[in-house]
Design brief:
29% helix; 11 helices; alpha/beta; globular; six-stranded mixed sheet; binds S-adenosyl-L-homocysteine
Length: 397
Amino acid sequence: MEKGYVVIRKRGADRIRRGHLWVYRSDVVDNNDASPGSIVAVRDERGAVLGKAFFSSKSQISLRLLTRNDAPAVSIDERFFQQRIAEADRLRERLDVDPLLSRRIYSEGDLFPGLIVDRYNDRLVVQSLIQATDVLQPVVTNILQERYRPRSILFRNDSKVRELEGLELKQEVIGEPLPETIVVNEDGKEIAIALASGQKTGSYLDQRDNHRAARRYARGQALDAFSYAGGFAVQIADRCESVEAVDLSAAAVAKASENAERNGLKNIQCIEANAFDFLRERHREGRRYDIIILDPPAFAKNKESLEGALRGYKEINNRAMRLLRSGGILITCSCSHHVSEALFAEMLADAAKDAGCWTRVLERRTQSADHPILLTVPETLYLKCFVLEILGDSILT
Ligand code: SAH
């Protein structure tokens, strides 16, 4: 499958040697007319081979490394990718990840750049995000069919990031046609998921471990803000007196209600509202909660929007802190890659200062274990989740 080689500058080579997988276009000296989405050898200007990579003709990221092995005998063929997928399976087995409801391939985190594979029982939802994974679609389809024997594979190639690669946005089903929703079992709760029309690949598998963690703190009056299909609400409700699940999207609220009903959870109230307004309104009413979950979408889409994003995060976190009873729990998340954990913690400290409370960090969490993080590829870590105990004066005097 490989063809040709690309020469890169020292800066790019150093980055690869430090363990990153990406080479930016500005670090490419000569791409030797490599074809879009091909697999190429990567060389530095002295001719030393650094490994083999996916080449992209359109993206700012020209190369994504697949292997550091420079032996010419290591060929990148169907077997190579089969092994990558087998390795990803082995990792998940060791981590005791649910085989029927999990991310099986997490792009760079599984050393398979550009490919996302989520499994929902006997259906797979795949995202191909770069040129090379589009070229490899038949190969990937073969491997996945052989390995998981799914009833259908849905290629949800409708993610906006494909535009950066010059790829069209589309969906394609292989195998049986898909029903509008399927029902999966998440830790004993039945959750209906719209694979083709839902957000992401239908659900937020990256929050599953945090849904589970939230159960430990659940009690009293709960608020699940930015609730989508009720991921947190459904998991905590049987330990709470009441749960309000708030989302701006009518479709999400309908799904959350359906999921609450399906599990016989009568104490969940699903509310269609802007969470910013909702928090303000509840504050004005003098309402109090024992646990609040904040799981907003990425406010910082790029570096330019960082400042505004931090203001947004601070506002909702400040409001939530003031709405909690002393000793209450705030589970607060950010999935903005541009907001580092340190920056997130700093923002939370600012919010606490304005709220006049102390906050104790009970847990610092991240995305679920089936979204593995490469230490030297910081982009693989995007989800921050703090579990905070809010300490007002009453608990301390
Ligand atoms: N907590 C969910 C995932 C949340 S994703 C889970 O664990 O499954 C973020 C959600 O925020 C989306 O459903 C989106 O519709 C919603 N959203 C975006 N802006 C919002 C706003 N201003 N107010 C309320 N919800 C909002």
